[in-house]
Specification:
The complex is a heterodimer of chains A (282) and B (254). Chain A is α/β, with parallel strands linked by helices and 282 residues long. In chain A, 40% of the residues lie in helices and 21% in strands. Chain A has 9 helices and 10 strands. In chain A, β4 and β5 form a beta hairpin. With 254 residues, chain B is mainly α.
């Protein structure tokens, strides 16, 4: 059994026109230490899935298990990075991080908690903005704080819900680098599930890319393996033939989903994923 | 420059217009003291604001102080009941459904209606006055605290859940700071009502203070002092509101 195992998860919401199925029969397996990206278009139910996976929301049916245990809430070794930063505006950067450290390590002294918080804020390049409030920081800096907060508790699982989508392209790539650095810097394998609508981001960071169909009744397509050595660089990905092929494959798969939605004909997804599977086997 | 001039001169014109209206009316109505007579009769009370000549016959500063002290106690008592009640109403749907109708019925009741009940329950005028102030002034705090708790974005609750904060941490680090500005809006409105209620409760209980003095001077036919009291009540109320407003703005800017 995989480290993170999602089985047959479905979720619908009540709306004015009756109940609306957002997710139906979702399966996902993530091995320990793997970085998995779920790529889908806007409004595909990605955030709903993330809320269920992280334990913030209950699924209507199906189970999520982490390390063999079915979760009933937030996993103690999990961290979550939200799209909208979700910092507490009445606390400074370091206080925001320390709150997470304090909750994870109540047995530590205050000085130890502050040290840990400072260390991680310095790692993400905010050593000179420790005592600034979120309102005094730019969007990119706020997301740095959020990332520092997620890593400062030294999690073994990391969930990220479109962590960089609110940022401009330049800030986005800097922060992706920060994330790469943090992942290698901590020297521990953090199992990560990231939701994104940016394919290049998924290629840069992931071991597996999972395309997601459009709602209603969103489903996951077969995973596509990215077999490129890490850490990767954006420039390298532009020319690498393997990367180019995977990019084409994901785009094609997503287009098929959309096409199927329009014509109503069944999805014919297997051809390309067999290529991916062969490569994984080799 | 022109702006600052207008800022100063326009309120002055407004004030003078009202005083002129008062002067004209005092000519038509023989019992209404003119502004000048009010000033002459009140001079002693204003120039020696802290003098104590008798039980009721005190300087205006001292009278206002008695009233403020009473308002402070009543308001504090009210806030002590209202704040937890507001949190409970905002946090629990069940509790809200149970007590919201009761609150909507109790809210519009006048201090004049509560006071006799207070006198029956407590047998003494001072606790009855405090009871009335507390009961009448608590509602804006209850309702604003409740609204503040309900307005906390889901985002902050998610942070509390994701960081696995304890109930106590969630309260002190998320719930309280997020609700504080709303609570202070409630406190400001509540204090305003407490100050409104003080006059009625002092009139009926005859305790020393601005309201008690006002009622006594009415009975002694010294009408100029009624106007003195009215103006004092207005000025003190205005200052209280400004003070709370200042604190509120500071909290909101955080």
């Amino acid at each position: 059994m995989a480290f993170v195992e999602v089985r047959n998860v479905s979720k619908s919401f009540a709306s004015a026109k009756g109940s609306r199925d957002v997710l139906s029969g979702i399966h996902l397996s993530v091995e320990e230490g793997e970085f998995v990206s779920i790529v889908g278009c806007m409004g595909a139910g990605k955030s709903t899935f993330m809320n269920i996976l992280s334990g913030l929301m209950k699924a209507d049916s199906g189970t999520v298990s982490i390390g063999g245990q079915t979760i009933t809430g937030i996993h103690p070794k999990a961290s979550v990075v939200f799209q909208n930063y979700s910092l507490l505006p009445w606390f400074s950067a370091i206080e925001n991080v320390r709150l997470a450290v304090e909750a994870a390590h109540p047995e530590w002294t205050r000085a130890q908690q502050v040290d840990q918080s400072r260390k991680f804020l310095e790692t993400v390049g905010l050593g000179n903005a420790l005592h600034k409030r979120p309102s005094q920081l730019s969007g990119g800096m706020r997301q740095r704080v959020a990332i520092a907060r997620a890593f400062a508790t030294e999690p073994s699982i990391l969930f990220m819900d479109e962590p960089f989508s609110a940022l401009d392209a330049l800030t986005r790539s800097t922060l992706q680098q920060v994330l790469i650095d943090l992942c290698s810097h901590t020297g521990r394998t953090v199992t990560t599930v990231m939701i994104t609508n940016n394919l290049d981001e998924a290629l840069l960071l992931s071991d597996q890319i999972i395309p997601m169909t459009a709602p209603p009744r969103a489903k996951f397509g077969a995973p596509i393996a990215v077999q490129l050595p890490k850490p990767r660089s954006a420039a390298q990905l532009l020319h690498d033939s393997h990367a180019v092929r995977i990019r084409a494959e994901v785009v094609e798969r997503l287009a098929e989903f959309i096409h199927t939605k329009k014509t109503g004909s069944p999805v014919i997804p297997i051809r390309l994923s067999t290529v991916a599977n062969e490569e994984r086997a080799s | 420059m022109k702006d600052r001039f207008l800022k100063f001169i326009l309120p002055l014109i407004g004030g003078l217009a009202v005083v002129s209206l008062w002067a004209v009316m005092s000519v038509k109505i023989p019992d209404l003291p003119s502004p000048l007579k009010t000033w002459e009769d009140s001079k002693l009370y204003l120039t020696q604001p802290l003098a104590k000549r008798g039980e009721m016959d005190q300087g205006i500063g001292l009278l206002a102080f008695h009233s403020l002290l009473r308002v402070g106690k009543g308001f504090f008592l009210g806030a002590l009941m209202a704040t937890p009640l507001g949190f409970l109403l905002g946090l629990s749907k069940t509790f809200n459904r149970m007590f919201d109708p009761v609150i909507q019925v109790l809210r519009p009741i006048s201090p004049l209606a509560w006071l006799p009940l207070g006198l029956i329950v407590f047998q003494k005028s001072e606790p009855a006055a405090l009871f009335t102030i507390a009961l009448c002034s608590m509602w804006p705090t209850v309702i604003n605290t409740m609204a503040g708790v309900k307005a906390i974005p889901q985002e902050y609750w998610n942070v509390a859940k994701v960081l696995r904060l304890t109930k106590f941490q969630t309260f002190t680090k998320v719930l309280l700071p997020a609700t504080l500005p709303h609570m202070f809006t409630g406190y400001r409105l509540s204090l305003g009502i407490a100050w409104l209620v003080i006059v009625a409760s002092e009139m009926l209980t005859g305790t020393p203070g601005i309201g008690g003095f006002l009622w006594q001077e009415y009975n002694s036919l010294i009408y100029a002092h009624i106007l003195l009291c009215i103006l004092t009540i207005g000025v003190v109320g205005f200052l209280l509101d400004r003070m709370m407003g200042f604190v509120e703005v500071r909290l909101r800017s955080v």
